[in-house]
Amino acid sequence: MISDDVFDYGRACDYIEDAAKFGSRPGLERIRALCAILGDPQDMLSFIHVAGTNGKGSTSCFIGSILAEGGLKVGMYNSPALCGIRDHYRINGRLISEKDYAACVSTVAAANEEMIKDTGDGATQFELETAVAFVYFQKSGCDLAVVECGMGGKDDATNIIRKKISCVITSVSYDHMQYLGNTLSEIATVKAGIITDDCPVIAADSGKEVRDAIEKRCGITGSPLHIVKKDAIHRRDMFPQGQSVTYEEFHDHIIGLNGAFQAENAALALRTVSVIRDKDLPEGCRIDAKAIRSGLKKARWPYRFEPISADPLIIVDGAHNADAAQKLRISMDECLAGYEVILVLGVFADKEYEKVIKCLAGGAVMIIATQTPDNERALPASELAACARRYCEDVRECKSMDDAAAFALQEAQDRKASGILPAVVACGSLSYLDLFKDIVLKAVNL
Fold first, then answer.
1. For the stretch 186-222, what's the b/e string if a residue is b when 16 or more beta carbons lie within 10 angstroms of its beta carbon?
2. CATH 3.90.190.20 domain extents, the chain
3. 9-298 has which CATH code?
4. What angle do CA 349, 333, 241 make, to 5 degrees?
5. Overall pTM surpassing 0.85 (yes/no)
6. How does pLDDT run across 199-243, given as a tens digit for each residue?
7. Residues 287-317: pLDDT tens digits?
């Protein structure tokens, strides 16, 4: 279905952002109805479907990069967007153009308006964004798409896809409990809802509760399960140039992403491509050792223990829940030994921010509490600072991002002048990291 009323880029952005007012409403009825009007573009594509609590974006990036190196045209849909509204959509690593984005949103908007007229109910923002992905990848002639769940799995809008060549479940931990359940078993059961009949499943080993839930679902669907065990993964750190990962038969593969947690994500990608490369992939596709090694090395994913400045050393990381904070702390301890860490933190009020602070505070000499601007979910800097003072002696409150960035940079410069080796680590909700990164880069490049 093609809209006669074609949006320009600005209007397309406004249409999608305006749908945020409808909030999050899990369920598949609206997205099914919307895609039916669009001619079900998702049914014309093959997918690798990725669920989990942490690591979905990085794992998807590794998989997509390897498959692209093997000769495939690979769409990738991730959530949340990291660097602007178009950042959900890539083909072989390239961001969707403003022209293509506007055209696809126009098509989806026309279908949504028709659905509203027929049913009185419109799609949520995430449902619209998901439909845009299906339209874009189908119109672009993608060989397959790597699609990340927005939240959960069973009732996630992405779970209307049918032709799955594999399902991947990354690390599972506590997050979004108001939607997914209060135990790891309940959360894992929801995420395992993406598993369909006779579809190979590659899963991180997140403990017995999670493993049991995934195994139960695989037993129902008859899907072969491949568990990526942590003790089979070995890494050699080369910070800040990345690291070398060895996993079972895959020896000394270089990845350009930092952080101890990336080794597990790379191992998930390695096992995934080894499982699917014997499937009926398009003619000319060659997922051989060269493609695997090259794809891993070329993969880039922002805000995952990402250094954005060398002098002073500034790292941004999207750790916003307890599990991600634990992984960030390991990376801090391993890579920043000998540094005095200045932690800049901004989080949403509905996250387990006290657990994040408790985990990270011991690795920092100072915490700078700030908040995401113009976001009703943002935890006020004053509340964040009050919580942080329970775990760190030196806590500063900065109500604006500009103030937080300026204070962190000044602290780093003062410590360096005193002969101390400083590192600034900004972490928390992804919505503020992009702004923080932009402010910092402008300041250090003056």
1. ebbbbbbbbbbeebbbbbbbbeeebbebbeebbeebe
2. 306-444
3. 3.40.1190.10
4. 100
5. yes
6. 999 999 999 999 999 999 999 999 999 999 999 999 999 998 899
7. 999 999 999 999 998 888 999 999 999 999 9
